[in-house]
């Protein structure tokens, strides 16, 4: 079962996520993972790549990401050089030149094209909410039939479509047409037991007591009204920091000293410190 | 689980019924998703409640808000216990329609005699009149002029390129041009960054003390949405934050106003602006935007909280403009605790009581600087 395979690579997926990943593989559909920052969306793609023994090709999205950065680009410097050489050799026939210039060897493959040309591969389209809607439109085109058409060259088709994981932190609503192509999964913060299990698995040397203390503190912070509640990525960092400081359980002094690994807003740190002081007083 | 799923056809019918239930509850279970659902079920165990639950949830839902709706439908349709605990929190705005007559609380002038301004100078006087003290006819005229207002935006550079006469080398077009000319790259083509309108996020206080102005402010917001529909978000703020951009998309101002009045659940109550800005800051909207807060600063909640949220807002937003209708009065001093807590974080503090003041505000959003 897929959950066991993921588990073998230290990724503890719950029932929903392992079903989602299983269906994505079997149906050849992209997996659209949404959830707050630090719940393990990107990590799943990395683990899938390890499980399938397929290279991970990552496309980090940002505002203004365009086809030249995501699909392909022409190597203009080499093209111009080639034109110059042709000129010296006395070739001036425009049709012949065009055929030579727009050749695969002058094409620079960007992540989406690279993923179609690499078999097998896992394509991670990370934080799609950061890109704009124009990017969504051509991503949709690529994901609907796993082809890229290059006007000068023709259509490039993936023989085996890559496994695609699209992640979003939901800072913006992604267009429904794209979501409809995908399997949609909303990832939650892990429950107490799972978080303890993840801490123990990922951090050799972590005592059960420390893992339980950290998971309980993190769960309480997620219920509090914080600017940025900690995700599993932050609890792992925090527990690692505590371990480095030699903690075997959550000691108030060490916890306060290492709080910066968990909470990245001053307001949040102050709120949590105030709550701790209140409880210890 | 119903036993009817013995044949694929019967199962498809059962699942189509489930999809209809989902659609009725607002989950986007369209035909395409229904097909995906059946496809997913074929790869799982259609006799297992858990597998049916996940196959449906993964294919039918499109946002975290859909998940609790899906859970309720699943429980109701398949009659079993709810297989997954519902999510807590997350929902930010609850839009509830109540039948509040638009503009209630306004003193109705019965026997109306005042005529519309007939001359240019009268029109000029009307431009500067406080909208709280207009006759019905004058108000209609101001509304008509507001509907003509253009809400242009300051431009900001986008990361995308367009062909240009100055800028950096555009390799693709240069090579194409060279090939066309038989290989001589003599003419370089250039490209430069495109620009886009800067987004405006407007928060309109609809609490009791703002009643005389809320209507005009919403009409101003309507002008903003109409001019730049993709670069404007509007919220109403009373005791809770409500997104009303969709309501304001109606082309006709009066229709838009009626839609707003139905959508805003907390007309003429108190204001807890601190709490509402906190809710706003949880949304992606204010980041990098020009944020316009239209309020008189009569804060019912804690002024400290309002100050803290304004501080955060000023770090997240491009610019924070506070519109206070009372600022039009020369004798006005910002003395309320809420206003005093907010002012240090405000880029521009402007009036919003007359047509002229709104025109100035529109110019400000178009990139003009306020005269101090």
Automatic annotation (TrEMBL), chain B:
InterPro entries: UCP010256, Uncharacterised_CoxE, vWFA_dom_sf. PANTHER family: BLL5662 PROTEIN, BLL5662 PROTEIN-RELATED. This is VWA domain-containing protein. It comes from Sphaerimonospora thailandensis.
């Amino acid at each position: 079962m897929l959950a066991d395979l993921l588990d073998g690579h230290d990724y503890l997926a719950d029932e929903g996520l392992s079903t989602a990943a299983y269906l994505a593989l079997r149906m050849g559909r992209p997996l659209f993972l949404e959830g707050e920052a630090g719940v393990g969306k990107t990590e799943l793609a990395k683990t899938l790549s390890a499980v399938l023994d397929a290279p991970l090709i990552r496309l980090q999205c940002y505002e203004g990401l365009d086809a030249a950065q995501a699909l392909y680009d022409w190597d203009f410097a080499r093209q111009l050089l080639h034109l110059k050489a042709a000129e010296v050799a006395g070739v001036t026939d425009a049709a012949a030149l065009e055929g030579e210039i727009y050749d695969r060897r002058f094409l620079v493959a960007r992540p989406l094209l690279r993923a179609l040309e690499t078999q097998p591969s896992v394509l991670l389209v990370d934080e799609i909410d950061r890109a704009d809607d124009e990017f969504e439109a051509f991503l949709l085109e690529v994901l609907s039939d796993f082809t890229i058409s290059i006007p000068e060259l023709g259509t490039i088709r993936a023989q085996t479509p890559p496994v695609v994981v699209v992640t979003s932190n939901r800072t913006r609503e992604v267009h429904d047409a794209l979501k409809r192509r995908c399997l949609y999964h909303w990832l939650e913060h892990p429950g107490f037991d799972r978080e303890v299990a993840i801490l123990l698995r990922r951090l050799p040397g972590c005592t059960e007591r420390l893992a339980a203390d950290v998971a309980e503190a993190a769960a309480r912070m997620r219920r509090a009204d914080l600017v940025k509640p900690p995700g599993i990525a932050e609890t792992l960092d925090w527990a690692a920091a505590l371990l480095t400081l030699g903690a075997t359980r959550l000691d108030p002094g060490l916890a306060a000293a290492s709080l910066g690994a968990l909470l990245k807003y001053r307001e949040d740190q102050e709120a949590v410190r105030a709550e701790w002081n209140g409880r210890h007083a | 689980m119903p036993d009817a799923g013995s044949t694929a056809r019967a199962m498809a019918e059962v699942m189509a019924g489930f999809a209809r239930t989902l659609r009725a509850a607002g989950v986007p279970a369209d035909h395409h998703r229904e097909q995906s659902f059946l496809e997913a079920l074929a790869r799982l165990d259609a006799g297992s409640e858990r597998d049916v639950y996940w196959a449906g949830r993964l294919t039918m839902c499109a946002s975290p808000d859909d998940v609790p709706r899906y859970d309720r439908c699943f429980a109701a349709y398949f009659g079993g216990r709810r297989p997954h605990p519902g999510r807590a929190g997350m929902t930010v705005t609850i839009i509830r329609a109540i039948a509040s007559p638009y503009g209630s609380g306004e003193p109705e002038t019965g026997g109306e005699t005042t005529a519309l301004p007939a001359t240019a100078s009268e029109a000029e006087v009307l431009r500067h009149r406080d909208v709280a003290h207009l006759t019905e006819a004058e108000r209609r005229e101001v509304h008509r002029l507001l509907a003509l207002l253009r809400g242009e935006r300051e431009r900001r550079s986008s990361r995308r390129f367009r062909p240009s006469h100055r800028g950096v080398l555009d390799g693709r077009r240069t090579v194409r041009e060279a090939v066309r000319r038989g290989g001589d790259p003599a003419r370089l083509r250039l490209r430069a960054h495109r620009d886009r309108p800067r987004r405006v996020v407007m928060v309109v206080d609809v609490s009791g003390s703002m009643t005389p102005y809320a209507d005009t402010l919403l009409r101003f917001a309507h002008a903003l949405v109409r001019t730049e529909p993709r670069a404007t978000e509007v919220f109403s703020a009373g005791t809770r934050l409500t997104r009303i951009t969709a309501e304001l998309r109606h082309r006709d101002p009066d229709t838009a106003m009626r839609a707003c009045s139905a959508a805003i659940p907390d007309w003429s109550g108190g204001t807890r602006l601190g709490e509402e800005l906190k809710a706003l800051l949880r949304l992606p909207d204010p980041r990098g935007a020009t944020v316009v807060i239209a309020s008189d600063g009569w804060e019912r909640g804690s002024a400290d909280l309002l100050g803290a949220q304004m501080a955060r807002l000023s770090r997240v937003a491009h610019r924070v403009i506070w519109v206070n209708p009372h600022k039009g009065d020369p004798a006005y001093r910002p003395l309320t605790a809420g206003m005093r807590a907010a002012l240090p974080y405000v880029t521009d503090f402007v009036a919003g009581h007359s047509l002229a003041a709104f025109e100035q505000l529109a110019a400000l959003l178009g990139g003009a600087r306020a005269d101090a």
